[in-house]
Design goal:
It comes from Candidatus Methanobinarius endosymbioticus. The chain contains three helices and no strands. By secondary structure, the chain is mainly α.
């Protein structure tokens, strides 16, 4: 595979500023990551899916 690099050397300060304003705090990324970890476990997903259909269980 050939070395593929961008030959454009300009920096779009306006784009960098726009993107920087949209970046959220690290805690948000941590929380989202933890949510995906929760759904990454097969048995946990089965339990979560079963809970709404069971009215007997207390949550």
């Amino acid at each position: 595979m050939a070395n593929q690099t961008c030959d454009i050397k300009s920096i779009r300060e306006d784009l960098i500023e726009d993107i920087s304003e949209k970046v959220v705090e690290d805690e948000v990324y941590t929380n989202i990551s933890n949510l995906f970890k929760l759904f990454g476990d097969y048995n946990r997903v089965r339990i979560i899916c079963a809970l709404p259909s069971s009215r007997i269980l207390c949550m």
